[in-house]
Specification:
homodimer, 133 residues, alpha+beta, Arc Repressor Mutant, subunit A, Dna Ligase, domain 1, 2 domains, 3-stranded mixed β-sheet, two-stranded antiparallel ribbon, 4 helices, 37% helix, DNA-binding
Chain lengths: 133, 133
Amino acid sequence: MRNSKQSETIKANVMGRYDHPTAAMVYESVRREMPNVSLGTVYRNLDRLVANDEILRISVPNQADRFDATISEHYHLVCEKCGGVSDVESARVTRALKRAFCESSGFAISEIQLVAMGRCESCNSNKGGICQN
Amino acid sequence: MRNSKQSETIKANVMGRYDHPTAAMVYESVRREMPNVSLGTVYRNLDRLVANDEILRISVPNQADRFDATISEHYHLVCEKCGGVSDVESARVTRALKRAFCESSGFAISEIQLVAMGRCESCNSNKGGICQN
DNA sequence: TTACTATATAGTAATGATTCTCATTACTGA
DNA sequence: TCAGTAATGAGAATCATTACTATATAGTAA
């Protein structure tokens, strides 16, 4: 693994932001200080950072993957209206999930992909949702 | 909403199988008895069935969406090796999730997308995974 | 039955995210 | 400095999904 100006810039960009950007968002941002980066290079570097456990990849249904420099255990809430992503610190949920999934199945679970969809506080006017159950 | 031979055939196909097929799998299958169906028609009808709560759409990271005729509350385990999908009955997990996500956030959660990735019993030789924690 | 109208379909083009290819560039260790 | 090789840029390719459009057909009313 070699160093390059591009890989440093891309890494600094993702590590320095907390808005859960997509690859395209990182690309736009990096492009401002390095106009010739290619989107492929952004993807390649993000993939590498994910592989090295330096950032997380968040798969959101029907949307581009997002990337997250916060490595500590947490899950995500995605607002269906404004697209914003919030973090939920939740070691407790993980424990419950591991218990429920592993114990009852022969599966060796390596990763749990969990995303909650809904409306964030400011977008939510009609107060619906499963909390009311 | 009108009836057509295609919509009936597509519905019967998904409702009659338990292998969590993708749209392409349904298409291949339906095409055997109706060689001229178009993939677009399959997508349209699956979308309609999802909208009517007759089937579920399962979003799996980096894979095509899968469809599930089992409506009762459950989650999915996807084998990273063979691609198989297993069901996990789990009202208990849902209760824990709702509690953890709703109570601590201003979010109105409409849907929780949860997929556990790992190795199914027959693909799992080296016995790794988070169960060991 | 027939005619009418709106919906569904087939076929295909378009889209969007991501990956791949390959010629070129530029680190890095000798 | 130089060779070897990994990383890059540019753009083509891929894959799932959606959009478009002309045609076919279901439901309905006469």
